[in-house]
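Standup notes
- DV: blocked on the single-chain target, sequence here:
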Amino acid sequence: MVTLDELLRQAEHLPAVEKWKLVKHVLRSLEEEQIVQPATSDWHEFLRSTYGSLKDTPIQRWDQGEYEEREPLE
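- DV (later): unblocked, structure below
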């Protein structure tokens, strides 16, 4: 496996076009990583920030309705 220092030394010898390809590749992978992995935060902070957000819109549980009785699984 190539170390970061070795990779940087090799990159110094690349022509400008190849360096730009390398930069674009690294940026693209960083952007994908940022999109795929949302920022992790403390769930306590999440609860504090969202607590009471539905106080003006009460949650109602409606009648479940009538469903047919099925035979039990064996």
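- Follow-up: Residues 1-37 form one domain.
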